[in-house]
């Protein structure tokens, strides 16, 4: 039972109050270890048994990145920007601002300026090409228009239109008559035999050319109405003024004409002979808008007179020029509705090709069967 007096603790017992201690009597305690931070410039030593990395010749030694501090995460790049990168082995790090090309170093060309100069040169080159192309196009159009005007032009006030007809190619044998001192090669084809006078040995006259009173070509039948032939080397009377000049300048020998009739259509077919095929080719090329005169004698109707519109067609084979002049047999001008008229002109030129090819075959057969050294018969007109 307590009486309010203080009780002194015995040995080994502690009191509820903290007693003051003598600082000299407390033993010293060790200080906490400081955090270790490795030096950033110190390379890490290789692990036992691992060979150290040796720098390669010509390349700088790669530095080992520093380890993060004790208890701290590794450094992260700033948000929105990439981490700073060093250049590759042997290359300097990139220069210039973020998103822009590197700046030119001292002594280096300005690549941007060079690219702009090259682009400007390309633009100038394109403009020059466009201008050149335009000039060529204009020249081509002018040439086409000029050709069209020549081919479709009117001569001496006439309104005669031409049906297209292409000259036959010059023969590959017997084309020259040999009068220039160079011996002509022996002909080997029907066209070759009728390419010069010396080998065209079949008699040449109206009867040999226009032997039939009725002919059929391309399914169309025509009746012979009149025939005619000019005198030797006097071809002017059978052609218009312009064609007569071309015929005489190329050595025209004769003009054989025949008029055929097929109902409302009348056609005059002219076969002109020259000394050789070269003269015929020259004539057909120069006579693109020229024609012969219609033969309206005897039973032939009066057609294609004066400036009456008619249709023509022309071609050449060997030493011969063929021209057909077709029109309405009633003498009226031909119109676009008269489809049979240009057809008739082409029909008669095709017929002339047929009879001349047959003539060449006959001359070739005669040359094969003729005795050696026998004189060749003359092909002069006999009437």
Key words describing this protein structure:
383 residues; alpha+beta; 7-stranded mixed β-sheet; 6 helices; 7 strands; 26% helix; elongated; disordered N terminus
Describe this structure in words.
There is one protein chain. The chain is α+β, with helices and mostly antiparallel strands and 383 residues long. Among the domains are: 109-152; 161-369, no CATH class. It is built from six helices and seven strands; from the N terminus they run H-E-H-H-E-E-H-E-E-H-E-E-H. It has a seven-stranded mixed β-sheet with strand order 1-6-7-5-4-3-2, with helices on both faces. The protein is elongated and about 100 Å long. It starts with 110 loop residues before the first helix and ends in a 14-residue tail after the last helix.
Please summarize what this structure is.
The chain is α+β, with helices and mostly antiparallel strands and 383 residues long. It is built from six helices and seven strands; from the N terminus they run αβααββαββαββα.
**Beta-strand content bin:** 5-15%
Tell me the number of strands. 7
Average pLDDT level:
73
Radius of gyration: 56 Å
Low-confidence stretches: 1-9, 11-18, 141-175
Form type: elongated
Class derived from helix and strand content: alpha+beta
Task: Report the order of strands and helices.
Answer: HEHHEEHEEHEEH
Number of helices: 6
Distance between the termini: 188 Å
Q: How are the strands of the biggest sheet laid out side by side?
A: 1-6-7-5-4-3-2
Oligomer: single chain
């Amino acid at each position: 039972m307590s009486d309010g007096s203080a009780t002194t603790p015995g040995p080994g017992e502690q009191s509820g109050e903290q007693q003051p201690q003598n600082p000299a009597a407390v033993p010293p305690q060790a200080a906490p270890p400081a955090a270790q931070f490795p030096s950033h410039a110190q390379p890490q030593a290789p692990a036992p048994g691992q060979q150290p990395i040796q720098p390669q010749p010509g390349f700088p030694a790669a530095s080992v990145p520093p380890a993060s501090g004790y208890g701290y995460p590794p450094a992260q790049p700033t948000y929105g920007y990439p981490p700073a990168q060093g250049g590759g082995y042997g290359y300097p790090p990139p220069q210039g601002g973020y998103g822009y090309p590197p700046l030119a170093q001292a002594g280096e060309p300005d690549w941007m300026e060079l690219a702009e100069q090259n682009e400007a040169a390309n633009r100038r080159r394109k403009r020059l090409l466009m201008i050149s192309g335009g000039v060529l196009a204009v020249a081509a159009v002018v040439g086409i228009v000029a050709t069209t005007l020549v081919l479709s032009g009117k001569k001496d006030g006439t309104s005669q239109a031409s049906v297209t007809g292409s000259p036959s190619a010059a023969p590959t044998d017997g084309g020259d008559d040999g009068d220039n001192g160079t011996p002509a090669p022996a002909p080997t084809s029907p066209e070759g035999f009728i390419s010069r006078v010396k080998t065209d040995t079949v008699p040449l006259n109206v009867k040999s050319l226009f032997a039939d009173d009725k002919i059929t070509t391309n399914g169309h039948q025509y009746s012979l109405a009149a025939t005619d032939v000019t005198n030797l080397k006097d071809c002017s009377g059978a052609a218009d003024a312009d064609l007569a000049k071309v015929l005489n300048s190329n050595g025209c020998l004769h003009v054989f004409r025949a008029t055929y009739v097929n109902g409302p259509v009348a056609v005059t077919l002219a076969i002109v002979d020259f000394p050789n095929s070269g003269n015929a080719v020259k004539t057909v090329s120069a006579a693109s808008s020229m024609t012969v005169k219609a033969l309206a004698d005897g039973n032939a109707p009066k057609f294609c007179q004066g400036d009456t519109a008619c249709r023509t067609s022309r071609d050449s084979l060997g030493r011969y020029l063929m021209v057909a002049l077709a029109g309405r047999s009633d003498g009226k001008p031909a119109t676009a509705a008269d489809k049979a008229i240009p057809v008739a002109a082409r029909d008669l030129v095709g017929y002339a090709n047929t009879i001349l090819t047959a003539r060449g075959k006959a001359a070739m057969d005669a040359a094969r069967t003729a005795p050696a050294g026998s004189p060749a018969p003359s092909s002069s007109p006999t009437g």
